[in-house]
């Protein structure tokens, strides 16, 4: 074998191999990465995420409550005076979540469970104590008055009488009573006694979180996709209390859809995301806002906006999705029904529905309010962003003391786009009660109509430092694979490029040697010159590879 020719061939083969290997790796690494990632993400009793999902103790979740202290309740009926509200708080709690009665259903790739939430007061991070007195709108009275409108004459007169006896529109209660321990009110017992409606709340006291601590009754029986069949379904709510529709809204607003909020499919786009909220009994849409960085990780920030808060959001509901509609309505019935008819005429696409309308559930409210009356036993509850952020300004004008600030009052979720892992979540909602005049109850004859802010909460969670570290490493793994393949390709190309260079170098040397020899020969007056090629081998290469021999 002649080394002089085999060297470029070897280099060429090696170079080609490297280029091929690099291309192969560059092409298959993302696919391989996807496959590994997908397997890691799917929820199963043995998956990495299972324990953290089952018991959230390792991930800090904080719940901060801010109350609006109503400082001038006596001026409510004075024309030109607005309620003055002073925000107090935060009253901070650590939230722990536990899933119980977990059943995996491999046959349809779902898991069914109940959720239990615990709250522990965190005095250190609070401003104030649970014993603080706060003046608020009397929610029990206002709710009763609201209900009286729709009850029978006898009911109405007896309630009117009772309400005229205890005419307070405001109450003074401690934070603890307002939230967890609740307080007694004669109207609660009365309402129970009278069996006012079938919607009477099953409680003997009133408190926003009364009986909720440690209870499994509030979030409902949930059936969620594990992503085993298709990772694009991971985390999706399938059934809520054994149904894929709710009884609170007309279709298609009654659909149980969206994510349970804890798992998201990987490889995010800037498309809207949807969470089903058991507290609101409806899905909530988050719109992509921008790309942000959290703990050195890139994330897509999605916020609650117009699509959820406005009263005329249009949405496309393909006819095939008819399964979401009430069993009594056919698809065609639905699309020709009165509540969507107007939209059908104005929009070319017959599948487009004004879902703002079906969420109004009757009378619409200004932009920024979500009517949860139906979902809260008929109490006139309205949810908004804190301080009426992103809401119709007329709502802010009704009271003194609300100042929206996107930094503090936005409701957002940040997902790491490759893995779909939530890295920063701030769920913030304000609870408002609609106060309005009533002819039936004298105390309420001349009150103004106000969506009255009561309190707001900020539920915060995100990645711990440990989790952020492993997430960064995992994301780096993807890039490292690509860098390596690029490096291999470059190496291969360099090897291939070196072949012509080698030839050129060799040729140059030969030429210069020939020239050199000619010069030498003429110097020494030699007649013939030849290059002894056979002499060039491993043993001899230390010597000059071209020797000049005078012709003997
Ligand atoms: C709420 O306002 C009342 C006076 O209107 C005051 O006495 C009370 O201390 C306030 N509560 C808090 C927690 O600041
Ligand atoms: C999956 O199967 C379980 C058990 O049979 C059932 O309870 C659940 O509703 C099913 N979920 C879906 C989405 O079909
Ligand atoms: C909630 O329940 C837990 C455990 O029973 C208890 O330790 C905690 O103090 C309760 N939280 C509140 C706010 O009552
Ligand atoms: C809110 O919902 C209730 C019942 O679902 C409905 O009666 C009412 O008209 C709606 N709107 C307002 C502004 O109260
Ligand atoms: C819907 O919201 C807009 C903006 O807040 C408001 O002007 C309008 O009156 C609302 N529609 C109804 C029917 O209340």
TrEMBL record:
InterPro entries: CD36_fam. Coiled coil: none annotated. Keywords: Cell membrane, Glycoprotein, Membrane, Transmembrane, Transmembrane helix. One of its GO terms (molecular function) is scavenger receptor activity. It is found in: Cell membrane. Its main location: membrane. GO terms for cellular component: cytoplasm; plasma membrane. The chain crosses the membrane at residues 480-505. It comes from the Eukaryota. Belongs to the CD36 family. This is Protein croquemort isoform X1. It comes from Cephus cinctus. The lineage of its organism: Eukaryota, Metazoa, Ecdysozoa, Arthropoda, Hexapoda. The gene is LOC107269355.
């Amino acid at each position: 074998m002649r080394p002089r020719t085999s060297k470029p061939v070897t280099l060429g083969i090696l170079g080609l191999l490297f280029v091929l290997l690099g291309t192969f790796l560059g092409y298959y690494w993302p696919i391989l990465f996807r496959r590994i990632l997908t397997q890691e993400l799917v929820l199963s009793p043995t998956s990495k995420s299972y324990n953290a999902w089952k018991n959230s103790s390792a991930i800090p979740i904080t719940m901060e409550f801010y109350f609006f202290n109503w400082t001038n309740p006596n001026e409510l009926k004075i024309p030109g005076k607005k309620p003055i509200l002073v925000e107090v708080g935060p009253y901070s709690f650590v939230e722990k979540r536990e899933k119980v009665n977990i059943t995996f259903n491999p046959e349809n790739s779902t898991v069914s469970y109940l959720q239990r939430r615990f709250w522990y007061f965190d005095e250190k991070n609070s401003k104030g104590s649970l014993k603080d007195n706060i003046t608020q709108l009397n929610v029990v009275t206002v709710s009763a008055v609201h209900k009286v409108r729709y009850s029978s004459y006898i009911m109405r007169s007896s309630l009117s009488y009772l309400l005229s006896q205890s005419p307070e529109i405001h109450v003074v209660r401690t934070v603890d009573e307002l939230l967890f321990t609740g307080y007694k009110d004669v109207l609660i017992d009365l309402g129970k006694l009278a069996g006012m409606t079938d919607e009477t709340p099953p409680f003997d006291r009133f408190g926003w979180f009364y009986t909720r601590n440690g209870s499994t009754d509030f979030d409902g029986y949930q059936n969620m996709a594990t992503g085993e069949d298709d990772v694009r379904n991971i985390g999706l709510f399938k059934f809520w209390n054994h149904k894929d529709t709710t009884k609170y809204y007309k279709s298609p607003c009654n659909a149980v859809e969206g994510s349970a909020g804890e798992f998201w499919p990987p490889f995010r786009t800037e498309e809207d995301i949807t969470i089903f909220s058991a507290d609101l009994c409806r899905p909530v849409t988050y719109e992509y806002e921008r790309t942000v960085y959290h703990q050195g990780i890139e994330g897509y920030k999605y916020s609650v906006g117009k699509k959820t808060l406005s009263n005329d959001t249009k949405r496309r509901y393909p006819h095939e999705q008819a399964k979401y509609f009430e069993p009594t309505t056919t698809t065609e019935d639905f699309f020709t029904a009165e509540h969507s008819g107007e939209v059908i005429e104005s929009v070319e696409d017959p599948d487009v529905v004004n879902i703002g309308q079906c969420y109004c559930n009757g009378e619409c409210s200004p932009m920024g309010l979500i009517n949860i009356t139906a979902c809260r036993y008929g109490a006139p509850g309205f949810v908004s962003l804190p301080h009426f952020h992103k809401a119709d300004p007329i709502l802010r004008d009704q009271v003194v003391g609300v100042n929206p600030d996107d930094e503090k009052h936005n409701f957002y979720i940040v997902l790491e786009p490759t893995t779909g892992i939530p890295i920063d979540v701030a769920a913030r909602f304000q609870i408002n009660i609609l106060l309005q005049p009533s002819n039936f109850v004298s105390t309420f004859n001349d009150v103004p109509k106000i969506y009255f802010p009561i309190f707001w909460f900020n539920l915060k969670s995100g990645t711990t430092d440990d989790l952020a570290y492993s997430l960064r490493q995992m994301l780096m793994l993807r890039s490292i694979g690509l860098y390596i393949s690029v490096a291999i390709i470059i190496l291969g190309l360099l090897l291939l490029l070196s072949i012509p260079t080698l030839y050129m170098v060799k040729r140059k040397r030969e030429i210069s040697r020939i020239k050199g020899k000619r010069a030498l020969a003429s110097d020494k007056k030699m007649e013939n010159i030849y290059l002894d090629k056979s002499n060039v081998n491993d043993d001899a290469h230390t010597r000059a590879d071209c020797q000049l021999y005078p012709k003997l």
